[in-house]
Design goal:
- With 492 residues, this protein is α+β, with helices and mostly antiparallel strands.
- It has a domain of 315 residues: Cytochrome p450.
- 51% of the residues lie in helices and 13% in strands.
- The chain is built from 20 helices and 17 strands.
- The strands form six sheets. A six-stranded mixed beta sheet has the order 1-2-3-9-6-4. Strands 5-17-14 form a three-stranded antiparallel beta sheet. Strands 7-8 form a two-stranded antiparallel sheet.
- The protein is globular.
- Bound molecules: protoporphyrin IX containing FE (HEM).
- Protoporphyrin IX containing FE binds next to helix 14, helix 15 and helix 20.
- The site of protoporphyrin IX containing FE has 23 residues, from helix 14, helix 15 and helix 20.
């Protein structure tokens, strides 16, 4: 190694050291929330947070109250833990923004080029999300049920017991249902091979997601970069045009993206790939948890069977071979036990924090007094703090299938400090940037559970307790710390 590269290395090391020292030197200014930065420069409290995220945040809450700033992986994050203060995010939406975060994500994780007029593009893309809500959900429901029938066709042919790992199974059924409902129905001959290859690649990519969102350069993550290029090339307009039955949301996005990037631009593939990732990454683990809890809790499975049987009988649907179920959105919505189970799975597994970037130094007006925020920091709502609050949810660590039910109806009243809460379940974020796919995701998990319970006998094979694996802290639903074997058999 020559002198030049040695001195270059020394310079980089010195700059890094300087940067670390600058980070470590930050002190709390008057009016700012308590600052917890630990003794480790840059990493701050990361290790403690990773070890026991909720326990760590709870300890700080006891000591410092409902608002404090923590140094985590080089970022100063101010946690707002009082659920009656969540609305501050919408009140100060011009100063606490999502744009910088999504842009950084788009470039770093999905390799999307940010255009000069990205604000207009984002605005138009947001308008396309109308096709994931309201009346559009009726069409989505019909397509989804049809696609689920196709997904399960092969499994229904065999009347023998099949044994599988539950997470692997959920990856397969959620990916196939989601892809075919959003991106279209791959012709039967090619369907299995095409879907399996795309699924395996996107899951390998997703596995590295926690590293990608941290500041580790993609070049250091072995074949992730080439995997990403492959996935983007799979989702180009030319490739997608060959798949019939594309959903309205993708058609609209395609028109908007063509207008901004031009027809042949690879960035369009990158955008489609990003939406595909968003549509499966969290739904898969929620499906796992919902299925796992139902099979671990026979009282939940019995109540669900009763509810579904009642609906099928009252709508004159007879159980028979194949997937015979047909139902409207209102009928699906009337299944309160099913919804309660999905919400309970979300409550127990969601660490998908709502994070916003502080655009400028400013003062938050809290009920308890003013609080100064610093430009360049982040503000976060942390779902486990409310989801695991014993004042809001009795024995919060327990799975209770009927937690969101009351007298046979949906339960929507939860209290803290004797006051009714407006926000008690926040797995999908908050305010203007709340997840636009939330209705789609909940509908999908409900339909998959409904079909599985109605058409198959299901049993856990292993008797082990699966816990959360804390690898996606602040970013999404936590995966299980191990997979678990189960078996299934077609009923009819
Ligand atoms: C259980 C499944 C899901 C969970 C827990 C989830 C959670 C979230 C969260 C927490 C956010 C950030 C919101 C915020 O910061 O306020 C988000 C954003 C987003 N989600 Fe989901 N999501 C799920 C499923 C889906 C599905 C099925 C789709 C698409 C069909 C989707 C598309 C998106 C998009 C496009 C954004 C970005 C929105 C924006 O830029 O404003 N998500 N999701």
């Amino acid at each position: 190694m020559g002198f030049f590269s040695l001195s270059g290395l020394a310079l980089v090391a010195a700059l890094l050291l300087l940067l670390l020292c600058l980070h470590a030197r930050r002190t709390r200014r008057p009016g700012e929330p308590p600052l917890i930065k630990g003794w480790l420069p840059f990493f701050g409290m990361t290790m403690k947070f990773q070890k026991d995220p909720l326990g760590f945040i709870r300890t700080l809450q006891k000591k410092y109250g409902d608002i404090f700033t923590v140094l985590l992986g080089g970022k100063y994050i101010t946690f707002i833990l009082d659920p009656f203060q969540y609305q501050l995010l919408t009140k100060y939406h011009k100063k606490l923004t999502f744009k910088k975060i999504t842009e950084k994500f788009s470039v770093k994780v999905f390799s999307i080029k940010i255009l000069e007029n990205s604000e207009d593009l984002n605005h138009e893309l947001h308008s396309s999300y109308q096709f994931l809500q309201g009346k559009s959900l009726d069409i989505i429901l019909e397509d989804m049920l049809q696609n689920i029938k196709q997904t399960f066709e092969v499994l229904l042919k065999s009347t023998k017991w099949n044994t599988e790992q539950m997470l692997t199974f959920c990856c397969s059924v959620v990916f196939e249902t989601t892809f075919t409902t959003i991106y279209g129905n791959v012709p039967t001959g090619e369907r299995k091979a095409f879907i399996s290859e795309l699924r395996d690649n996107i899951l390998k990519f997703d596995d590295k997601f926690p590293y990608l969102v941290s500041d580790i350069p993609i070049e250091l993550l072995r074949d992730v970069k080439s995997m990403r290029e492959k996935l983007i090339k799979c989702m180009t307009p030319e490739k997608l045009a060959k798949i019939p039955g594309t959903s309205k949301v993708v058609q609209r996005r395609q028109e908007i993206l063509e207008k901004y990037y031009g027809l042949k631009d690879l960035n369009i593939g990158a955008h489609h790939f990003a939406l595909l990732w968003a549509s499966i990454a969290n739904t898969i683990p929620v499906m796992f948890w919902a299925m796992y809890y139902v099979l671990r809790h026979p009282e939940a499975a019995d109540a669900l069977h009763d509810e579904i049987d009642h609906l099928l009988q009252s709508t004159g649907q007879k159980k028979g071979s194949g997937i015979f179920i047909h139902l409207t959105r209102e009928q699906l919505d009337s299944l309160v036990c099913l919804e309660s189970i999905v919400f309970e799975a979300l409550r127990l597994s969601s660490y998908s924090s709502t994070i916003r970037f502080v655009e400028e130094d400013f003062t938050l007006n809290l009920e308890t007094g003013d609080c100064c925020l610093r430009k360049g920091d982040f503000v976060a709502l942390f779902p486990p703090a409310i989801h695991g609050d014993p004042e809001v949810f009795e024995s919060p660590e327990e799975f209770r299938f009927d937690r969101f039910m009351e007298d046979g109806k949906k339960k929507t009243t939860f209290y803290k400090r004797g006051k009714k809460l407006k926000f008690y379940l926040i797995p999908f974020g908050f305010g203007a940037n709340k997840c636009p796919g939330r209705f789609f995701a909940v509908m999908e998990i409900k339909l998959l559970l409904l079909v599985l319970l109605t058409c198959f006998d299901l049993e856990l094979i292993e008797n082990k307790s699966v816990k959360l694996k804390y690898t996606r802290l602040l970013f999404g639903i936590q995966h299980p710390n191990s997979d678990i074997l189960f078996r299934y058999k077609a009923k009819y």
